[in-house]
Known about the structure:
The chain is α/β, with parallel strands linked by helices. It is built from 9 helices and 6 strands; from the N terminus they run H-H-E-H-E-H-E-H-H-E-H-E-E-H-H.
Amino acid sequence: MRYRAPSGKGMEETAARRGVPKTALARRRGRHHGGGVKIGFLGGSFDPVHFGHLIAAQDAFEQHQLDRLILVPAAQAPLKPNDVQCPAEDRLAMVRAAVAWDRRFEVSDYELRKGGVSYTVDSARHFRARFPGDRLFWIIGGDQLPRLHLWHDIGELVKLMEFIFLERPGHPMKAEPKVPGLRLHRCDGHLMEISSTELRARVRKGLSLDYFVPHKAIVQIQEKGLYR
């Protein structure tokens, strides 16, 4: 459900309860009264969701002063045909549990409800129609840049969305994709080498997921016997 920001005193009280800095509150209020807001989208299989995903989301949110950030679990990633191991409803439940306490983040089930291969351009059309007056940013890892020109209908996609790519501080940008009209923004992130494949293997071996996966997502995995 789309979050509607309160106004005036109610907005300040809500922000105080959520721990939103006053500078961010002023920025958000100004955008709501003077035009569109900045919304970031982070897609992925989230199989399972882990701290690497969430730190990337926070880095992009903070460095690019986003007003909202929406996590978008994919039904089936087009460039990773055999990547998804867990049912859609369980992956969605894990992501929701992981960020339920954090009012900066939201979760969209659009790609899961749509089913099939999750082409980013389809999601971009959906979110552009939903947020017609806002600036939309799709967040990717810097390692995806060399393959960005291979994305489905990339020519249309770059008209619908801007891109934020995550890179390690001080590291040079990888080869910039030759995509006409691409609006690209760098984010120096705290990139973590956490692999969902490795995490699933840890579950099968009976090893702990602590310090890799949010506790509430771990509870979901244990209670439902996922990845065993």
